Amino acid sequence: MTKWLFRVSVCMGVIGMVFGITMGLTHNFRLAPVHAHLLLVGFVVMFLQALYYSTIPQAAESRLAKIQAVISIVGAVLFPIGITCILLFDRQTFLPVLAAGWITVLTGMLLFAVIVFRTSGSQVARR
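Given the sequence above, the corresponding structure tokens read:
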């Protein structure tokens, strides 16, 4: 599970950087929010989650951590898609996609918070 968080986060980082380079070359910054969310939610947040799971292995062993990782990956993909659809197409039509994306991202982060609070005070974490 941790390896998938690392792998997906790095892929999202590459996609976000390509978005940024493309915007810079074309001087079209309409999709700048997509670029930002790909990098922050897709790369930074998931990479930090993977680092936490690597540092605190017992946190990664729980069933909740596996569920959290899947939800975070789905949210990191769905949220930028929703932002893209809102910016390029009809807002009213694609608002549910955007809402599903941010709710999924928030759910993944809330689950991660529960995991951190459960495991950060453990003996292994203190070493």
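The two ends are 23 Å apart (CA to CA). Try to locate this feature in the token string yourself.
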